[in-house]
Specification:
The protein is of the alpha+beta class. It has three domains: 49 residues; 116 residues, no CATH class; 102 residues, Endonuclease, Chain A (3-Layer(aba) Sandwich). 47% of the residues lie in helices and 16% in strands. The protein contains 14 helices and ten strands. The chain has a four-stranded mixed beta sheet with strand order 7-8-9-10, sandwiched between helices. Strands 1-3-2 form a three-stranded antiparallel beta sheet. A three-stranded mixed beta sheet has the order 4-5-6. A hairpin with a 3-residue loop joins strand 7 and strand 8. The C terminus is likely disordered.
Length: 287
């Protein structure tokens, strides 16, 4: 049956009228609904079982997922999880928001939408998040998209340069700092701290006998950004100890920073990084 692959290519949900126009008549839809192959939703929308709720909401509103909701669809991380589903609808439309949804009065040009699912393209998503989300969230989305090859830093620079209006300046600042070497949102936050301190650093550095480290600061301090999901199994625990011991042999101190350190204790972590990156002899002269 071609109906199910067609619906999957449309993001898992679609309006009945659009399916009829594509050649899938009411009889076929009724047959698929009776057999549990499709699920009916309000607003004359049908979906595959397990379809993403955000896509269903976008179809019901006849709009396009945008901003943080589009980032979530593309599996791009943000620091602050969106509380509602953001759906862009054309300016001048009279559609009201649904529970748990935010209607964004914005016209999305066809070239800024995916061909199928009701979602903005990766580049449009990065630029929207850069201009409308808090700076760190926008940079995390941009870094992740560049790391996965969904956009290039040059794409983002050119796109941001063409923006105007509210948030355009912030978007250009995000574009200037995009770094595809960042492998997680925590590494993005760490990088902003090092930039704020004006400390020279390298990301994703391979050290002989140690392996790859998140950041090497001024050639003498290793910094690792640890998320909840890492280093919890015994094998990972042993590997972490081996790496730490190897760093000691190389004379490199190791600073491990958690999510709380990087996100919720920014001022304290800035002081910690500044002190850890300052040579001991210089600290003793300054005391």
């Amino acid at each position: 049956m071609r109906l199910l692959p067609h619906l999957a290519a449309r993001g898992g949900a679609d309006r009945r009228a659009d399916l009829h126009e594509a050649g899938y008549g009411p009889g076929l839809l009724a047959w698929a609904l009776d057999r549990g192959l499709l699920v009916a939703h309000p607003g004359w929308v049908v979906a595959l079982p397990g379809a993403a709720p955000d896509v269903v909401v976008a179809r019901r509103l006849r709009g396009v997922l945008c901003d943080a909701s589009a980032a979530r669809w593309h599996d791009l991380p943000v620091l602050t999880a969106p509380r509602s589903t953001s759906v862009a609808v054309g300016r001048g439309t009279s559609r009201r928001a649904l529970p748990g949804a935010e209607v964004v009065r914005r016209t999305v040009p066809p070239e800024h939408r995916l061909d199928g699912p009701p979602v903005t393209t990766p580049l449009a998503t990065v630029l929207d998040c850069a201009r409308r989300l808090p700076f760190l969230d926008g940079l995390a989305v941009a870094d992740a998209a560049a790391h996965r090859g969904l956009v290039t830093p040059d794409d983002v620079l050119r796109g941001a340069a063409a923006l105007s209006g509210p948030g355009a300046r912030r978007a250009r600042e995000v574009a200037r700092l995009v770094d595809p070497r960042c492998e997680s949102v925590l590494e993005t936050v760490l990088r902003t701290l090092l930039l704020e301190l004006r400390l020279p650093y390298e990301l994703q550095v391979d050290l002989d006998g140690v392996g790859r480290v998140d950041a090497l600061v001024d050639g003498r301090l290793v910094v690792e950004a640890d998320g909840f999901e890492h280093h919890s199994r015994r094998a990972e625990f042993r590997e972490d100890r081996r790496r730490a011991n190897a760093l000691v042999r190389r004379g490199l101190p190791l600073l491990r920073l958690t999510y709380e350190d990087l996100v919720h204790r920014r001022a304290r972590t800035l002081r910690l990084l500044r002190e850890a990156a300052t040579p001991a002899a210089h600290r003793s002269r300054s005391a």
